[in-house]
Design a protein that fits this description.
alpha+beta, disordered C terminus, single chain
Amino acid sequence: MSWMPAVGGAFLALRRRVAVWSLWMPLLWAAPLPVAVTGAHVQGQVGGSVLLPAECHPGFQVREAIWRSLWPSEELLATSFRGSLETLYHSRFLGRTRLHRNLSLELGPLESGDSGNFSVLLVDTEGRAWTQILQLKVYDAVPRPTVQVFIAVSQQPKTCQAFLSCWVPNISDITYSWRQEETIDFGIEPHGLFTDGQVLRVSLGPEDKGMAFSCIVSNPVSWNSTIVTPWESCHHEAGKASYKDVLLVVVPVLLLLVLAGLSAWYWGPCSGGSSARAGGRKKKEVCADEVTLQTENPLV
C-alpha cells in the first residue's frame, strides 16, 4: 500500500488550495472593489520584457495581491497570499509572467497583441484594499527606413532640386525627422518638409557634392536611420538626360534604315537582277504574273 502516503499528500495539498481559494473568493467576486487609481502608462517592445510596478501609499502593509488583465479579456495572471507567489494561471500570458517579491509583475517576451489594461488589487493586514490600474502599450521595433531621391527640373544652371522620400512599411505611431550630417544643427527648416516630415526638399549646387542627410524614424521605444547623399542622384540624372538626347537622334535613323531594307527586300524580285537576291524561282513567277495582268488589263 505504498500509494497511500502519496494520495494522502495530494489530498492535503488540494485541501490547502481550496482553503486558500475560499479566502480569495470574497476579494475577487463578492466584496466591492475600492475606487481604482490609474497608474503610469507603461511602454514595451515586441520581443522584450516590461515591469508593471505595484505601488501603494506609505504605511500600507500588503498581505495579499492579485494581478489581472482587464482588456481585451479579463484574466487572472498572478497572486500572492501571505508570501506564497503563484503565476500558473491559464491565460494568454501563461509561461510569460514572473511575480517579484515586491509584488511587481514582469511580462515577457512581449507580443504585438499584449497591449491593454492591467490591475493589481492589494490587501493589507487590516483588510483594507487598494487597486491600481496600469496601461501597457507594446510597439514593434522600428526597421531601417528606405530613402528614395527624386530629381526635379531646375530653372537655374548647375543647380539640382531634389526631393528625399523616407518611409518604413507596416509600422504605426511613427515619427519622421531629418538631420544634415556633419553639422551641429539637428533640425531641418519646416518649409522644406512635406507629408508630416516624410519628404524633404533640398536645393544643391556643385559645392554640395558631399552633403549628406539622415532620415530618422522613431516610435516611443526604438529608432533607426538611413543616410543618403542626394548629389549622386543628381549626377546620375544628368547622365541619363544626355543618353536620352542621343537616343532621340539614333532611333529615327535606325528606323529609316530598317524601312529601306524591308522595301528593297519586298520589291527586289521584280527588278532585273532579282533572281540572285530573291534566292528562288517562285518569286520570279509571281512577278511575271503581275506583268501579264498589267498588260491584259490596260487602263481606259
